[in-house]
């Protein structure tokens, strides 16, 4: 039996009177790429924010890598990397200054930071752009830099909220190649509304609709018509 | 893992570097302060001097309103660009984010005061610099107090849709008590020797600063994770 990296039971989250997650119970296995599918407004981003400690649930319980995100947020935070809809980069700083800033927040040693930059920057083809202020970079380069930022501390759990939207073909391929390489070493949770794409990439899936889990299981059992 | 103080310094350094490259807030603050000083010097100064008790109030009222330009965007810019999520998902205590912003606010305001106080002293014929150590101590503690209140006000304003209206509504009442103490201390400094009464009020000011810092830091996680 595989270990579960995320276990949610009866998880509820509201925005005012609107219920974004309605008694959601689900599990994500450790290692591999786990898909969180659903159309816009299904509750995918809300669930990712609860997992990443950004939002407090209003009901139910959740465990992330054995920790409660509300009771032990720092234990969860140091183990996750997050790529969301907004870039977590400072426009006035250069690429390397952004990465160095985050490395300080994560308490990385200089040696580890340098080795991570040397590994990740060429892989995502941003090594020649690191000295440029982020505001001078194209949207694609910024997205690549943001992906490197999310990986700089070598997280155990990578949370990707619609990571491929707005990416060009080359960046998408580079990122997929990287995710495949680490498929057996790291857990990645990917949200997408592109079901065909998700079915190709993921090992397991959970489908949300209007804040409710409608199906979950191994990707071989995934039915796109549901 | 980075200590809370190390993270606070990294956040403050990042904001200071950004400010030096952008120059927007510092320039707006300095310009406002200069215009206010010139306007008051034409209106109030008679015979080359301003009444000492009026000068004490004017000095801190100018600093108080100048602070609004610097403190209001402290969290709003991070909230609007989305980078606040990067701080919220980093494995650092929430208070370190607040402390980092207070240090930055203190630096920004201090930078303006380095130019502002001598100009006021000359144009108002104002003798605050006669007792230099006490004047410097008052400016340091007073500026830190305003930065502590301003940073928290900026954080509390984040969820509001009417940010421009809400910030002064939070900043004014919470900063006014400190402002009154600062005016009183400055008045005693410029009116003549009165170390004992100054120290008594200074103790209250220090208590106000410590209360603002500890109270804000202890509840700050609610601002980061709603």
CATH hierarchy class name of the domain at 1-79 and 182-212 in chain A:
Alpha Beta
Indicate the mean pLDDT of chain B: 87
**Rg of chain A, Å, rounded:** 17 Å
Number of strands of chain A: 9
Structural class of chain A: alpha/beta
Shape of chain A: globular
> How helical, in percent, are the residues of chain A?
25-40%
The main sheet of chain A comes to:
6 strands, mixed
Helical content class of chain B = over 70%
Largest interface, counted by CB within 8 Å of the partner chain's CB:
A-B, 31 and 26 residues
Task: Please tell me about this protein's structure.
The complex is a heterodimer of chains A (226) and B (226). Chain A contains 7 helices and 9 strands, in the order βββαβαβαααβαβαββ. Chain A has a domain at 1-79 and 182-212: P-loop containing nucleotide triphosphate hydrolases (Rossmann fold). In chain A, 31% of the residues lie in helices and 28% in strands. Chain A has a 6-stranded mixed beta sheet with strand order 5-6-7-3-8-9, with helices on both faces. Chain A has a 3-stranded antiparallel beta sheet with strand order 2-1-4, covered by helices on one side. By secondary structure, chain A is α/β, with parallel strands linked by helices. With 226 residues, chain B is mostly helical. Chain B has one domain (4-224). Helices cover 83% and strands 0% of the residues of chain B. The longest helix of chain B is centred in the middle third of the chain and has 30 residues, at 94-123. Chain B is globular. Chain B starts with a helix and ends with a helix. The model of chain B has no long low-confidence stretch (mean pLDDT 87). Classes of the chains: A alpha/beta (226), B mainly alpha (226).
